[in-house]
Amino acid sequence: MLSPGTLDWEVRVEEWRRTIEEYYDHNSELASKKANKFVARVVETNRRKRSETYNFSNCGYVQDESESENNDAYVTFTSSSTTINTSPTSSSVNSSPPNSSPPLPHTLLLSPSHHVTIVTSAALPWMTGTAVNPLLRAAYLLARKDFKGVTIMLPWLERPEDQQSVYGNKAFKSREEQEAYVRNWLKVDAGLPEASERLKICWYDAWQQKAENSVYSMGDITALIPNDEADICILEEPEHLNWYRAPGESWTSKFDHVVGIVHTNYFAYALDQPASIVRAPAMRFLCSWMVRAHCHKVVKLSGALLEFAEEKEVVENVHGVRKTFLDVGRKVQEGPSSIPADSVYFIGKMLYSKGIGTLVDLLSYASSTANLDVTVDMYGSGPDLEGCKSLASKTDTRVNFKGPVDHSELGFTHKVFVNPSTSEVLCTTIAEALAMGKFVVCASHPSNDFFTRFPNCLPYSNKEEFVGNLYYALTHDPEPMSEEHLRELSWEAATERFVKACEVTQEERDRWIVEDGIRVKMPSLVRDETVRKEFKEVLERSRERYRNFKNRIRDELDSPLNPLPRSVKEKLKQELDRKLDLDFERILSEPELRLQLSPAELDKSLLELYNQVSVSPGGDILRVIGGGTDVGRQNQYIQQKSQGVEVDRPRFEQRFGQRAARGVQRVLEDNLARQNKAFAENLSNLNVGDNEVGGRVGGTSSLNSVGLVGVGRRRPRFPHQRRPMIPLGGFVGGGCARLLMG
Prior knowledge:
Digalactosyldiacylglycerol synthase, disordered N terminus, DGDG1/2, alpha/beta, chloroplast, 742 residues, coiled coil, eight-stranded mixed beta sheet, disordered C terminus, 29 helices, digalactosyldiacylglycerol synthase activity, 16 strands, six-stranded parallel beta sheet
């Protein structure tokens, strides 16, 4: 049921009135009378319902109907309904128009002839969205049994220190060990035993970029994918996967259809970082560049994201919640609830960007203005944990920090979930809380538009609404979730939405090759209306003076005393007659950059530029300067890998057997000994004493310890040598001996 105190009630009534007028032929006076009579009856019913409002006098907060009418949204509740979204945004998830033509065959995910490859930038046991959601997406796609096959490509952190930093104590010695962990999680935690066996899991080498706490691929991922499986590719976070990607075949040339799913609002994060005036626009351009160049279709999880490629993007929530949360919600509805009425909690990373500071301020406001003192249990960890604790202690809010926990464990312990974050693209914890039958008090924000359709979602747009929604949640029981609502939150429904969102029709394809060019919306040049008006007046006065100046020049040209030839005069007059009728108001408030390129031509140009930058000898330099640090040295990494500079001993043993590994180890030891012997002979031929050698390389007795044959060291050259005297196979010993010898 709709809450009688919401703004979009009147909006819906107005839409109904228009519908009735069209149905009865709105040019008819009779139709207008019928419509107005219907609206009057509905409004009167709505007013009678408003009379049953809750008085907050018992908790120090009172708001009567007269105050409500003056506010954008007001706090009124009925005993049998809950608040829905008061923002003017639509609750519809898919912002694209319905497809009027059939989709192109190569974009159909459900085709039995198509193999689907999902590439993501995180893997379990890192419980982050880009690790969990792509894995579940692959598993539920596989459950449809309509595919040729489904492969998920996960990052293998080959450096032990990276695993320690990302996974904590859950480190793995081999890819097979981590793959077993992932399959067990699918089988036990996700309840998908069949998918855990059938899903094809591949790994690509990756390193952690510690400054960003992000994982990036090392080497060319596309080279690992067989050509007979290169049908449809799903890039989870396409911008992230391509920022520092190694040179190689492009996604759009390797695959017939590439779909990018944008998870993160990097532009919003850049706004909170130092030098945001430069960093934020650069981040916006870079993200648009990566998405345009590498994707045929773009799926944005919510309207909170900026525009990347208008002609090929769609807004759709393609995430679901695990069956565990749906089962908890059904159990909660079966019998009388034993959950404490005043139990409130927050779960998520302890980051200021998650709105922790905002939540503390809101709780303090509720306590000071409405005597609404609640204790909030905070679950999670993060770099700002200590700062959040300090902030909470300064404001005397009752907040308990309890560390990380699986969200499903809170199904029977808490009743109200509060989430003030506006930096999310789509908050998974909100979906999980709704699935478990909890009240959710969240910010009225485009990232939460999908959830406002559910009866237990209570969005707020100001402090007063937060107080009202929190009070309502504490004094009422959540409405039972219908099976329809539960299914809408499930991965089965999310998979259906995803399959539909990936399709491209011929009409959409035609929009990519239009000749009209592209209009790119730019941020407002002058946001302050008063300043913009003054600026506009100055520009208009300047334009008037300039036109008067041109008129005087024209008069001079018409003068019989002017010595210029007639042909020159005519050309000058034509130029003077030209006028730029610019709309200064629009330029200052809503500027647009128009490119004389079709979307397809722009995408092609951006991809060519990306390839030129990536493959060039200076590609590593640009990636490092751009913030990639060690993960930016992709060309160097590929070169070292091709030369066998680094070999993972456990991986070699498991692939070729322990006996083969020992044999290779003996060969490398012999090669290393011959190499050191040859080097010592070179030194003796030069009559170089031990003291001089010690000054250079630490003495002939410790050639191995100084790293002359170590990784990445350049061996010294001597006047009588064009190249170092290294026995056959010595280049292998230089990089592999240490790793294989332990």
